[in-house]
Structures are given as structure tokens and as C-alpha cells.
Amino acid sequence: MNLARAAQSSIGAKSVMAVSGLLLILFLIGHMLGNLQIFFGADVINAYAHKLREIPGFLWVARIGLLSLLIMHIGAAIRVTRENRAARPEKYEAQRAQVANVAARTLMWSGVLIFAYVVYHLLHFTTRSVHTGYLKPLDSHGYFDAYSMVVGSFQNPAIAWIYILAMLMLFSHLSHGIASFLQTLGISHPRYMNTPLRFIGPAIAGFIVAGFIAVPLAVQLGLVKLGGG
Fold this sequence. Notes:
The protein is mostly helical and 229 residues long. The protein has seven helices and no strands.
């Protein structure tokens, strides 16, 4: 396969990667903003969680949609990476190994590891199939006590730091992924490299990841505690 054919055959995969990536970023922002409501106390976050469950089929559609997007995103990334490698002459690939291939492999494998963490995260906080010792009775309003489950879980250093490390991996993945997307759009052209545009990827990734990490860190530091109303 030559470079021209590789470009033509991978354009669909790149489109799937871009669209699924954008939708995942929008989901992450919404999810992160929802999580931050824990800082307003148990009543607020529990009411928020209850409202989501009241929407018929919403949570299952969101869960299935999220996993589908992740599978599509990873599958497209694997296809693009394989086709790019197959299209490169051996000498060219050796010359570019330290730049393009390492970054591509990091993106692909970090994506797979993030997917594995998402499955664990859903089992923990969504289906509540693991770490069941942190489940509490209903709160005073008769709502599921999401606040106590989250805070109790993150009081366990192992759970908190697994979450934080997964978010740091997400930061690396998003930074590289957004930069690649911008490069496809032409925004990463050399003439933009000395402008604030080069910080778009790390800025968006940092905003999302900081919001997620704030919750377990606050619990570990004792800023958010069980019994908060």
C-alpha cells in the first residue's frame, strides 16, 4: 500500500476518530461538571443523581453510547495506526520512529488502558458491582446516597489514586489527541506554533482532568467528608 492509498483508505477512520473524540470530550465536560456538584453537599449531588435516574432510559442510553463511542474511537485509532505503518517505507519509518510512531503508539495504548478503566469505573459507580462495602442506605429524601458512596470510596487511598492516575493518563491522551485533531484541521501549521493556539490541547485536557481530580483530592485532603449536607 502506498502513501496515497493509505490516505484514501484511512480518511473514514480518521473521521470516525475525530467525531467520536469530540463527542467523548463533550461527554467528559458534562460529566465533570456534574461531579463537581459534590462540593455543594450531599443534598445537591444526590438530587442531581436522582434526576438523571428519573429520565426514562437515559442512563442506559448514556452508558451504551459511551462504550460504543470508546470502541469506535479505539478501533479507528488502531486502523489508522496500522495503515500508516504499512504505508511507510522501512527507511522512512526508522527516521520518524522517535516522533510520529511513539506518539501514535502512546495514544493507542493509553486509549486501551483508559477504556479498561472506564469499564471498572462503570462497575464501581454506575452498576455498583464492585466495592459494594461503600454503598449506604437512602438519604433523608429517599434518594440513593451517591455522596456517601463517592466520598467513602475516595477515602480509600488505593481507589483515589487509581482514579487520579487514570485521569493523568487521560490528560496525556487528550493533549496528544486534540493536537492531532487540530493538525488535521491545519491549525497546528508551523505558522501557528508561536501563538496561543498551540496551548489549546493541553488547556482543554487540563480543564477536564483538573475537574475530575479535584474530587478525590478534596476527599483525601479532608475538604470533603462523610456527613456533608
